[in-house]
Amino acid sequence: xxxxxxxxxxxxxxxxxxxxxxxxxxxxxxxxxxxxxxxxxxxxxxxxxxxxxxxxxxxxxxxxxxxxxxxxxxxxxxxxxxxxxxxxxxxxxxxxxxxxxxxxxxxxxxxxxxxxxxxxxxxxxxxxxxxxxxxxxxxxxxxxxxxxxxxxxxxxxxxxxxxxxxxxxxxxxxxxxxxxxxxxxxxxxxxxxxxxxxxxxxxxxxxxxxxxxxxxxxxxxxxxxxxxxxxxxxxxxxxxxxxxxxxxxxxxxxxxxxxxxxxxxxxxxxxxxxxxxxxxxxxxxxxxxxxxxxxxxxxxxxxxx
Length: 305
What we know:
By secondary structure, the chain is of the alpha+beta class. Helix content is 34%, strand content 22%. It catalyses: L-threonyl-[protein] + ATP = O-phospho-L-threonyl-[protein] + ADP + H(+); L-seryl-[protein] + ATP = O-phospho-L-seryl-[protein] + ADP + H(+).
């Protein structure tokens, strides 16, 4: 990879001849974990993501995530500061050095508001959603789709601007399916890489002759909008109860009755969550709808639950 890395004593690592002090673990998943590190050369904090690679396919997947990051230079897409592949006995680890945003994810913000008994004001929803859409439009304009858009994959910076992250599930926006075998490959891939409660309906049962396009992200975007409006994703509770999300997403979404949000925002939500992907808007149309909605007065910022 051209990025030498070594593990050194006293809880430091060296990437590209720059030393970083290990602070503490930020989180971990099935095949990766993230540590907070401090650059000893600049005093800045970073998130060091380590992806465990058991074989060649895992290494290729990790490098794919690196390549996706390197495609973009946009304020609403998390940049990659450095990367490396290091041997760990019979295994490898891909190391991705990313900016550390102390405010955390959009999901953490939604949870915090819910715990306080307040809903997110429409003006703030519009601002955050607009930033997500700008990042997503950049991805789509490059011919790719995110495929795992959800509140835990959106970070918020100090200015409340969203940054899309976790680009490992990204692939080409347009996928042509020609037979049942290809359909099953795509369906199995989606089951592994696309979070179930934010997964578009067409990815649950892939037709043997169809085209999957970037509008899978528009469905997920709608789920994020719903989450900001109502404190949880539209299918989160269904999944938690053990009921069938695959069945639930085939039904028309019912927006909870409320007086907090404008009919225009509710219409935007409904337009993104159309079961038939061919009737779903592209991101440019979503942005047009979004920009046509007037912000709500600041006095409505803290509506109690």
